Amino acid sequence: MAQHEPLSTSISDGIAARISAGDLLAGDRLPSETDLAELFDCSRATVREALKRLAARNLIRTARGAAGGAFVNDLTYAAALDAHVATSTLLLSMNAVDFQTAAEARFALERACADLAAANRQADDLSALDLAISRLSDPIGDVAFCAADVAFHRALVDAARNPVLSYQLAGAVEAMQPLMNMLTYADRDRETILALYRRIVVALDARSGAEIRGVLADLEALMISLFNAGQSRRNAR
Fold first, then answer.
1. Which residue(s) pair with 72 in the sheet?
2. How far apart are alpha carbons 98 and 227 in whole angstroms?
3. 98-236: what CATH class?
4. Is the Cβ–Cβ distance between 25 and 66 less than 8 Å?
5. CA atoms of 142 and 140, how far apart (whole Å)
6. Neighbours of 141 (CB within 10 A)
7. What is the dihedral of CA 67, 70, 74, 75, to 10 degrees?
8. Residue 90 near residue 161, CB atoms below 8 Å
9. Which pLDDT score, from 0 to 100, does residue 50 have?
10. How confident is the model at residue 1 (pLDDT cuts 50, 70, 90)?
11. What residues does each domain of the chain span?
């Protein structure tokens, strides 16, 4: 029998949809816990859980006192970006998708930035990529390597100079990339990855979106191959 999602999730998703649709605007006060409990025919504890979910997504803020309550947040781009990354991380941590599906989506999204990055890149974008490669070349631990790795891909995406793409890719890069690194680090050869990254920088400098897409396709195949090798080894134990 299929499990139904908790009522608190349904409530929070319903309120979030109203915020997204513009039915609830920044600064609007939500009904009281008592009124919401009556509206959704549930306990106040369920309502409180729903409000906690909305607050965790930066969609609402709460205030105490006579003039307090729950209010719709005036969302900033940075807050929306953080919420997007958090949601993507949660999705992956719950094993809702398999590794290959995540890798295919993650690299397909990044390849979508290649032509714009090639056309719009500026000197500081190349500098950011060079800095990440320099860090990746140092004898650093896996945690530091992962951070520098994410910085490299964020710099490539940001070179497209398109905030909508940067927003969409934030979840793919900052949630999926660390996960892929964690699952493949035992079989990963850093020099192989660095060689691919250096090809990306050369291609970006030459404004060749096609070459960048090709290298990202090679990198996708490598990551999937490394994961499968690790799975085979673990299954053989």
1. 60
2. 11
3. mainly alpha
4. no
5. 7
6. 7
7. 160
8. no
9. 92
10. very low
11. 7-72, 98-236
Between 93-97, 113-117, 190-194, 213-217, the lowest mean confidence (pLDDT) is in 93-97
Closest to 42 (Cα-Cα) out of 69, 20, 72, 14:
14
Contact criterion met (CB below 8 Å) for 171 and 87: yes
Token pair for 215 = 């290298």
CATH architecture of 7-72: Orthogonal Bundle (1.10)
Its pTM stands at 0.65
* Mean local confidence (pLDDT), 207-212: 97
Which stretches of the chain are DSSP H helices?
Answer: 7-21, 33-40, 44-56, 77-93, 99-111, 114-120, 123-137, 142-158, 163-171, 177-184, 190-205, 209-236
Tell me what pLDDT residue 83 has. 66
Tokens encoding 198: 């250096």
Measured distance between the N- and C-terminal CA atoms of the chain, rounded to whole angstroms? 34
